[in-house]
Amino acid sequence: MFRQSKFFFPFTIVLLIVILLCAVAFGAVSIPIHDMFSGLLHVLQNKKSANIYEGVFIEIRLPRVLLCTITGAILSVSGVLLQGLFRNPIVEPGLIGTSAGAAFGASIVFVFAIRMSAEIRDLAGPLLVPVFAFGGGLLATFLVYSISKSQKRISVTSLLLVGIAINAIGLSGTGFMSYIARDPQARSITFWNLGTFSGATWPQVGITWAVAIIVFIISFRYSKQLNALILGEEEATHLGVEPEKLKRRIMILSTAMVAVATAFVGVISFIGLIVPHILRLLIGSDNKKLIPASMIMGAIILTVADMGARLLIAPAEVPIGIITSIAGAPVFIFLLKKFNLLQEKGSSYG
Amino acid sequence: MKRIIFVLALPLVLFSCGQFGNKEKDSKRDMRIVCVSKQLNEMIFAVGKGHNIVAVDLSSTYPDSAKLLPTVGYHRMLSAEGIISMKPDLVLHDNDMGPANVLPQLEKAGLNIKAYDIGRTIDSSKLVLKQLANFFGVPKLADSLNQKLDADLLTAKNILASIHIVDTPSVMVIQFGRAGNSFFVMSGRGGIPDKMIELAGGRPAHYDAKGARQINSEAVATANPDIIIATDYGFDKMGGAENFKEGIPGVALTNAAKNNRIYRFEEHDLVYFGPRTGENVMKLMKLFYPNANVPAK
Amino acid sequence: MVEIKNAGYAVGKKWLLENISYQFFPGKCYMICGPNGAGKSTLMKLLSLLSIPDVGEVFYNNTKINYTNKEGYSKYRAVLSQQVDISFPMEVEEVVMMGRYPHFKIKPSKEDIEICDEVIELQNLQSFRKRNFLTLSGGERQRVQFARVLSQIWKAPEQGSRILLLDEPISSLDIKYQFDFLKHVQQFLNERTIIIAVLHDLNLALNYADEILLLNKGKLFSSGKPGDVLSPENINAVFQLEFKLHQFNDMQFLWSVV
User: Fold this and answer.
1) I need a labelling partner for A225 at 20 to 30 A (CA). Which of A171, B1, B139, C169 fits?
2) pLDDT of C152-161, one tens digit each?
3) What residue spans define the domains of chain A?
């Protein structure tokens, strides 16, 4: 069935490298190749960039591409994890409210940071927004988890319904922040909800990559248990898995990396939906293959999308959330139809 | 296989998109300016240096020639690379750039950046115009523009004093259509539109917003303005005063609607103070008091 | 040996099972029968450790069950349910390999792969290996699940017996598959295996079980040899049927008394 399996990884890794090279090579500013190399050389020699081309390359384009790439990986893997957890392909961090919660957490910082003392702001520095976003995302995910847990087992339908409610609360909370904010901040929030990689900085890249790699490694070690969950929670229990514990851990892992990405970039939806779906058609549902594959595929797709974002109407930019929505919404509708709007297959009371 | 080729070709296509968009004629420029503030753009044109501008932001719509320039996006959604790609000798802004990291990136790239704080009063706007003109080496132009502004405002004041105003008309400014079908009342918040209204001899229609951004149609009807100023976008989208009356709930019940006093006004003439504020005040005044003897321009 | 002692299970105020005690010995095939609501599934849940009894205890191989660390039990105790639906497409051989999950951490060993091969051959699934599980028919799916379950407990533990629990495994199958299945179950039985099954069909229970537990209203009504347990009196009391044992050639079957 999945004949492509053998060639899949070598091919996609090569493709990713090609796309990354294109992404750093092309942009609104035409950077001569020798400046790219000399810029890198100067970094290694711990010197400052010699000219504006080197500067743009090192300070603007490289961090942007790196942040974009890892965000694509994060969103896709998060999609895989959540879908495995809830045994439904129509689940992704946007849908269960994680991203909305993270956005709300970050919006609080924008509104109240002004009223905070300068000391706190200086202390926290670039970490302030992602920490609050993480808090917001966790709160949202925890709310969804505990509300739908009121039945002894988490049913997918109730989870999605609660996710819709949490999304609504998160988005209106963010909106409320924009109501009480002074004008410039308010615009920050609305724009923030559309997502953009413009303004990516090296500290952001560092934090996001660090969190992502840790989460990826841990998640990969759970692939076997996630596979077992495909049989259903009862069957998984018989195979030695503890579903509730697994669910809690996966939820925390997934939320952590999504929140960090959302904190720096804004809400980007549908990647967690599109990528796992395509990959399952190509290489099947074994999480041992699916998790690494979605890292690569997610990175590819979002990097290409961001190239579109910054090249299509240069020197202006299209917010990346718009591009992913245009591509993702049809896939979402297709999935809804294909799976007949949530046919719950799974554990039932004896 | 086809998919692979498409995926590989896509970046090349996108690359060329950007390239061709950037070719402009570099004629008769003293310098290349990127300015992402609508007020500053208007001022630069006003002091006769508009030909130096190579790119503006999305909201810079005055004068008309500004609309023809390439745009680097909305001023809160900029990209550093986009601005740099325009090879500016100078970047001008009014401390309202976003996302937050773009300005530091531009500074790190070694660009020449200048900020002017426009403020929210006529005086601050006049001051900025003077500073800008000084920078460009044409201080006298600022002086004459500012003098004209003062003269216009004085004329307006005198005319208003000469008419015997029985009832100051209550005025509401409605912006419609930017976000679907929602409408937004721009007056009544103590902002710049209110000041313009007062200078033109009206009073902003009072409503109890309870802190909300968007007031509803009941509040519009209750506030019952004598005059409604509809900003250009919404007015045109509706297709005229009659449709505006019908289309926006609550409007039809107002005095303004009943007396056919719904007027179209350019948004960028209302929302910030600039060199043409004096003229705009006069324009408003003529709408409020059609019988007054306003001198022709 | 599997033992359940004075066990009871309640949901709210209602006791689904009361005072159940029994010992299951290796080398035998036990079947649990009874009308709907008698407590068969609940008993199976207690035996498979899915549920913790509110009263009483469960023992595997003479050791009391430690519910906080159940992972080890999966190495020699497998459960096959009525119909296992999977939510994403998977290859048949991947599903079978899942049975070996309790036995390896990340990568299957050579032994795991060999066991899967043996089981697939035993169940005649070689031609299905690479097929998508979701495209199989009900009977084929159950065969695959059975293969998975077999691979899970293919090897008996060092001490004690392997335990196979079957919860109405054939109720949704075609007749041909039902008999096929039971034949395989019998072949799986040996002196180090305990098989406990919930079966609806009294005649199948009669002919395939070594011992029968007859449940009624949450209590153990009768237990022992099939012929004794499924007496006309018992059947009448529990199922409200006038049934008796008929002889046909060398076969026995239960049917109504007329």
Assistant:
1) C169
2) 999 888 888 9
3) 8-344
Cα separation, B43 vs B142, whole angstroms:
9
Chain B residue numbers with beta carbons less than 8 Å from the beta carbon of A22 are 11-12, 15
Cα C205 to Cα C214: distance, rounded to the nearest angstrom = 11
- What is the structure's pLDDT at B28? 65
d(CA A342, CA B231): 47
Q: Which helix (H) or strand (E) holds C15?
A: strand C14-24
Instruction: State which H helix or E strand residue A24 sits in.
Output: helix A5-25
Residue A99 confidence class, pLDDT cut points 50, 70, 90: confident
Quote the tokens at residue C76.
Answer: 């020699």
| ipTM of model | 0.89
Query: Please, are residues B230 and B198 in contact by the beta-carbon 8 Å criterion?
Result: no
Q: Is A274 helix (H, G, I), strand (E, B) or coil?
A: helix
| A93 contacts A75 by C-beta, under 8 angstroms | yes
B15 and chain A in contact, CB less than 8 A: yes
What CATH code would you report for A8-344? 1.10.3470.10
Could you say which of B77, B82, B212 has the minimum Cβ distance to residue A28?
B82
| Chains C and B physically touch (3 or more Cβ atom pairs below 8 Å) | no
CB atoms within 10 A of CB A149: 16
Give A231→chain C minimum CA distance, Å: 5
Cα dihedral A111, A112, A115, A117 sign: negative
A335 contacts chain C (CB < 8 A):
no
Asked if residue A96 lies in contact with residue A143, where contact means CB atoms within 8 angstroms, the answer is no
Q: Which tokens sit at C177?
A: 């598959």
| Per-residue pLDDT, B139 | 87
Q: What is the pLDDT of residue B109?
A: 81
Q: What would the pLDDT profile of B93-121 be if each residue is shown by its tens digit?
A: 988 887 778 888 888 888 899 999 888 88
Nearest 5°: the CA angle B187, B189, B193 is: 40
| Percent of chain A residues topping a pLDDT of 90 | 27
For testing the chain A interface, which of B105, B112, B182, B271 should be mutated: the one with the most A CBs within 10 Å? Answer: B105
DSSP state of A339: T
- For C29, the 3-state DSSP assignment is strand
Query: Which one-letter DSSP state was computed for residue B168?
Result: P
Identify whether the C-beta of residue B103 lies closer than 8 Å to the C-beta of residue B97.
yes
C100 in contact with chain A, both atoms CB, cutoff 8 A: no
Q: Which chain B residues contact residue A191 at CB under 8 A? A: 74, 76-77, 98-99
Burial class, A233, CB count within 10 angstroms (exposed 0-12 / middle 13-18 / buried 19+): buried
- From chain A residues 82-121, the ones with a CB under 8 A of any chain C CB are 83, 87-89
Residues in chain A closer than 8 A to B74 (CB atoms):
191
